[in-house]
Amino acid sequence: MNLILILDNIRSTYNVGAILRTAEGFGVSKVILSGYTPRPHDPNLLPHLRAKLDREIHKTALGAEDMLDIYSSDDIISDLRKLKARGHQILGLENNITTPHLYRINDPALKSHLQSPAALILGEEVHGIDNSLHDIIDLFLEIPMRGQKESFNVSVATGIALYALTS
User: Fold this and answer.
1) 124-151: per-residue pLDDT in tens?
2) Domain chopping of the chain, boundaries
3) Is the CATH number of domain 3-166 3.40.1280.10?
4) How distant is the alpha carbon of residue 146 from its chain centre?
5) pLDDT digit string (tens) for 66-106?
6) Beta bridge partners of 32
7) 13, 52, 73, 88 — which has fewest CB within 10 A?
8) How far is residue 122's CA from residue 133's CA, in Å, rounded to a whole number?
9) Strand order in the sheet with 3-8
10) What span, in angstroms and rounded, lies between the C-alpha atoms of 45 and 92?
11) Are the beta carbons of 91 and 118 closer than 8 angstroms?
C-alpha cells in the first residue's frame, strides 16, 4: 500500500521520533507534520531550540528523520483536500467515536474498503484527531482494546496500524 502518514498536533518529540522510525521501517512514502507537531530541522526555530528538538527527536528516530520525505504543512485541511483530489483515501486512527465509517483494524471486512494510495492521520495524544478534520476522513480505524486502558500510546498505535495496513 502506498501510504502517507500525517502527524497532526502530536506533542511529544519522543513520540514523533518513534513514529518516524516506525514509518521508515514500514516504507511509508511521505510524512506530513502539521499543527504544533515538533519538526526535525525546523528552520523557523532559533538555533538552540532547533538543536534541542533535533536531539530529542533523534533519540527515538535514530536517523529515520533524515531518511524520510518529510513535509511541514501550514494548512492541513487544504493539503488533505489536495491529497483527496489526487486519489488518496484519507484514513483516521481514532478510538472512542461513533461513526458508520469506523472499522476495527483487525476486521476482515476492512481490507475490502481500503484503497491505495492512502493517507493515515494520527491526532493529538490525549484528544485524538481534531474535529475539524473529521469531515475529510473517509474511514476511521480503531485498534480494539482488551485491557482497562482506553488507548495505546500514539507511537505504539502507529506501529500496530502500519503493520495491519501494510501486511
Assistant:
1) 988 899 999 999 999 999 999 899 888 8
2) 3-166
3) yes
4) 23
5) 999 999 999 999 999 999 999 999 999 998 787 778 899 99
6) 6, 71
7) 52
8) 11
9) 70-72, 30-34, 3-8, 118-122, 89-93, 139-142, 102-104
10) 29
11) yes
